Each structure stands twice: as C-alpha cells, then as structure tokens.
From TrEMBL:
This is NADH-quinone oxidoreductase subunit A. NDH-1 shuttles electrons from NADH, via FMN and iron-sulfur (Fe-S) centers, to quinones in the respiratory chain. The immediate electron acceptor for the enzyme in this species is believed to be ubiquinone. Couples the redox reaction to proton translocation (for every two electrons transferred, four hydrogen ions are translocated across the cytoplasmic membrane), and thus conserves the redox energy in a proton gradient. The chain crosses the membrane at residues 6-28, 59-79, 91-109. GO terms for cellular component: NADH dehydrogenase complex; plasma membrane. Keywords: Cell membrane, Membrane, NAD, Quinone, Translocase, Transmembrane, Transmembrane helix, Transport, Ubiquinone. It comes from Eiseniibacteriota bacterium.
Length: 117
C-alpha cells in the first residue's frame, strides 16, 4: 500500500483542487449578470448568426481522428523509453500496433475523412 501512497495523494489532489477552486469562485466571484454578460463571446466582435446553429459533422470527425492518433503517441513514448528492455518481442508488438494504425489511417484517407471541402 505504501508504494501507491504517492499515486493516491496525486489523484486526491487532482480531485480536490478543482472542487476547491469552483467553490472559491462561487463565493468570491461577482453575482450580477447584465445583458452584455449573457451575449456569447466571439473574439470581441458582435455574434453573427444564431447561437444554436449546427456544427458540421466534419468537426467531430476530425476531433475523433485527432484523439485516436493522439492516443497512439501516448503509447509510443513509454515504448521508446523501454525499447532496450522489451527486446525483439516488444519491437514486434509495436510494429503490429503501428500496422493497425496505418491500416486505419489508409481507410480514413480512402473514405475522404481527411479532405476538407
């Protein structure tokens, strides 16, 4: 249990600090809302169009693709650090992992998900 003490402390701190900041913000922040504060912020200029306009699905597709390939990098960094310890089996596992990702990238490319029109 002592080896997990630091991890439990960091997780507890990660949960406690945002809650503490939200509570402090609700007590210390201003409570008056004016009509100017209720207008959505668009880079300092007046909003154009309806607030409830639809967002194209293409944005969501790009976001999901970004997450998939970003998670790939999360797996590549530890592998790079432990490359010598893992040896040849670790190399083959990473080659298989990257091959699956390349097949997925080719599929997405052929479907036209990377083309912005």
């Amino acid at each position: 249990m002592t080896s997990y003490g630091g991890l439990i402390f960091v997780l507890g701190l990660a949960l406690l600090l945002p809650i503490l900041f939200m509570v402090a913000s609700s007590f210390l922040g201003p409570r008056r809302s004016t009509s100017e504060k209720m207008v959505p912020y668009e880079s300092g200029i007046l909003p154009q169009g309806l607030v409830s306009s639809r967002i194209p699905v293409k944005y969501y597709l790009v976001a999901v693709l970004f997450l998939v390939f970003d998670v790939e990098v999360v797996f590549l960094f530890p592998w790079g650090v432990l490359f010598k310890k893992l040896g040849v089996p670790g190399l083959w596992e990473m080659i298989l992992f990257l091959a699956v990702l390349v097949v997925g990238l080719i599929y997405v490319w052929r479907k036209g998900a990377l083309e912005w029109e």
